[in-house]
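Exercise 7. Given the encoded structure of a 256-residue chain, write a plausible sequence.
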């Protein structure tokens, strides 16, 4: 199995994982089955060095961005109760405002610090369902723990999440413009090109480049503010630009 075949399988899985689960009327449409089987706890399989194992090909997953996304720890989307790798999800953090009050906020970067929960990384999903179901996604450990002693009534913005969403989306667009400004002045990737960023109306959001071996195409056409970056072609390498690649990927999936 060649790199493109492996990446095609991984890409199909990532796109299924980010499937829109919001109907036109704003109600939930929970997929019948998760693309990642979660009926029982998965067992970790340790292979010291794949390249030294007889009859086991080396798929070079260590430098495959899709494999790295799928390899992130599993978390449960509290609104759909479907488990996904956490790199596909948004983290909702419980933050203490003062001795009495707390608030919920969408994290810009996943953090282990404090109490958190996870929801799907999709604009339509966040804007339609989150304001309606905030009480359902308050971190369970925070409200169930006898040590923390947190009452849901202490969360001051649980009934109005729209300002939180607006603040997060404003940050996304600001960060996107700042990162694109840096990328436009960046020299082509010194090592192999793993991802090529383009902006074309007639191309899919994320696809495998049929003309270049081992290269993914990221089309930013649906991201707000992307009109000023028409007809670009920016090369990135997983080895040196992994965080940038992950950010652009999540942004594309959020506005897909």
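Solution.
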């Amino acid at each position: 199995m060649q790199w493109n075949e492996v990446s095609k399988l991984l890409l199909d899985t990532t796109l299924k994982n980010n499937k829109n689960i919001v109907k036109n009327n704003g109600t939930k449409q929970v997929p019948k089955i998760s693309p990642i089987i979660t009926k029982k706890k998965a067992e970790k399989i340790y292979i010291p060095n794949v390249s030294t194992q007889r009859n086991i090909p080396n798929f070079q997953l260590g430098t495959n961005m899709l494999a790295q996304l799928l390899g992130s720890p599993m978390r449960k989307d509290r609104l759909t109760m479907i488990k996904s790798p956490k790199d596909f999800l948004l983290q909702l953090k419980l933050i203490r405002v003062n001795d009495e009050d707390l608030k919920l906020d969408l994290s810009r970067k996943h953090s282990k610090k404090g109490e958190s929960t996870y929801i799907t990384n999709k604009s339509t999903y966040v804007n339609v369902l989150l304001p309606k179901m905030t009480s359902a996604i308050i971190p369970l450990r925070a409200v169930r723990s006898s040590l923390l002693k947190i009452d849901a009534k202490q969360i001051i913005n649980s009934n109005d999440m729209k300002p939180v969403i607006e603040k997060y989306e404003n940050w996304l667009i600001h960060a996107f413009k700042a990162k694109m400004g840096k990328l436009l002045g960046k020299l082509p990737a010194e090592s192999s090109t793993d991802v090529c960023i383009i902006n074309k109306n007639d191309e899919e959001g994320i696809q495998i480049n049929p003309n270049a071996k081992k290269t993914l195409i990221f089309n930013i056409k649906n991201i707000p503010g992307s009109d000023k970056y028409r007809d670009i072609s920016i090369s990135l390498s997983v080895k040196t630009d992994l965080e940038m690649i992950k950010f652009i990927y999540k942004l594309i999936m959020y506005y897909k």
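Remark. Residues 30-39 have pLDDT under 50 and may be disordered. Students should compare their own answers with the one above.
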